[in-house]
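EI: anyone free to look at a 677-residue chain?
SC: sure, send it
EI:
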Amino acid sequence: MTKATRESCRAVALIVCALVFSARTGHSAVSFPETLKDWSWLALQGTSHQVRDVRVSAGHLVLTLTSGSAEPVVAGDDVVGFFFSGAGSLEYTTDDPLELPVVAYNVKKNTGLTPTAEGKGLAIRDRFEEVLWLCGSAALPNLPPDAAGAALDARFAKHREKFGRVQASPLAHQFTAWRLNAPDQPFVRAEVSGGTEDLLYALDGARRKTESLYSLRKGDALPDRLYRTVLSSRPFGSDWRTPVFPTVMLTAVDFTLTASDGKDMALSVTETLAGGERPTSVVLLDLEETTFGRSELDPRHLRVKGVFDETGAPVAFDHAKNEIAIGLRTPLAPGATITLRFELEGDVLYRPEGDSYWMLGTDAWFPQPDLSGQYYTVHATVKVKKPFIPLMPGTTVRRVQEGDWNVLETRVEKPVQFMVVLAGKYAFEEATKDGVTVRVASYAMKNPRAIRKLMTLAQKIIAHDQWFLGPFPFPEFNVIEINDLGWGQAPPGVMFITSEAFNPIGDSTNELYSKGINERFAHEIAHQYWGHVVKMPSFEEQWLTESFAEMCAGIVIRDLRGKSDFASLQAVWKLRARDATAIAPIPLANRIRNHTKPSAAWTARTYLLYAKGPWLLNTVREKIGDRKFLDFLRSCQATLAWRFGTTEMVEKVLEAVTKEDWKPFFDADYWGTGMPE
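SC: here you go
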């Protein structure tokens, strides 16, 4: 998007409400509790008006209210939008070349709509019968004063109930944060229903700086829940190459977790938050509210008992839909810090398939910002009932027994993301070599021979990685057996492996990533460099962790196993890259969805990050030679050490190492859907 286009979009978003709404305002609540209450209980103003051929627009969305009735909507005393019922049409266009392939794919695979070519872009069109339009403005609609419309109370209530079932950041959280943090920025939301698809539009110039269009679908096991599918989402006021600056940065986490011998736990977390680019009065953090065990029929609940400031005084909050909104007494200034303590409890200790361990993984089991706001050190103490043994990242401060409890205390001194905690009937062995302690833990039944074999393998790979990537990032590294690998980012100083590594019987899951246990180890150990030393600020940059880790795994396999194994791995990368490259560019791999065949979307995403990404890097290696390529990897680690990396930064490092222009290559094959050759 050009600067002129961005400014045009901003002007449209700011002006649209002034055009549609005339200037009449009520008293505006300014406190967090009042504002949250007002936006939680939206209401009709009381007078409905007939409308015909009214055009409303924001960003790349145009709604035409062909005929029907509309009524102003109020939050407290302020008019904040309107509700329309009747006949209307919608048009959303995108000309962003990066997202066009995945927009076409997602619309075709997830909706009954047909994307149509519109100049150099695509248009998504639908009809509708109802729309709730909410805008960052406190003005009344400029509706015909003498044309009385139909009563809308019952329809409005039904509409609110329906869209209230959308499993995403609550509307009240979003607009309260906008109102108290960035009221000068555009913020528009449109809930559209009654057409071929139910759609949700959001223009967020305040926090995420995106313009997005979603379709909605019912949950499979819980049809009362509605889930979003991204049809289009593009930067607003920024660009793909520049990550959005976080509202707050989480810089330190100190927690004590006490686990029962069942599914319940108590968690006390003290967090240090640093202010972002503007004063912040409302902090929005991810925090699971309802999770599920074996299925959606096994709900687990995390409850917030209280939030407290440095003095111990309670702080106002609202916890809903896996997000906690916190109202600060005084705005957090840019660069300033605040300490908050969260007291939590819940029945969230799920044992997969009834096995003898539980895990709090990389999801938000403690309050945390978006990825670009996660940059925290950790001090952690975990107490579990015997015979369970706790395991988690960090340097061990103490591992002791206290009566019926096993206790582990650790510290992570470097800034990380993805803190995890596990506990179970584990047996482990550990050994220190070249300053790194490797700990291998298996559960249910100890296999000393397999443990020693895996420990030797980990030590060998760590030594090799240090040769071309630099010192190993953490003084302790845990190799932990679990039932299901899952598909999350590797935690700091931890890798997970399933039981076939301890009792090899063959497993197709590992094959999807690389070629077996050796490659799996090499990939996960490489994540300690690509994922923690060099961090991803968003899921659009996930190739910095997955593709680089897979490429480094290939180098390890070549050097320790032989060139033929590496050649076989290269062939797999190339084949799978060809299968997925037309669906989306690498940065949008995580957006691919296919609800009629979820495995197809998951495979395409995996092939882009674990095949096309490393194939692109391997193409660079073949062009510049091994020596320069290893210099490039080493330089990335040195230049971006313990920082958030971006593809643009990596490209600059490559150009510095090779003295060549790599922009056309990345534009075609990384930002585009070209196939590296």
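EI: DSSP finds 14 helices and 32 strands in the chain.
SC: 👍
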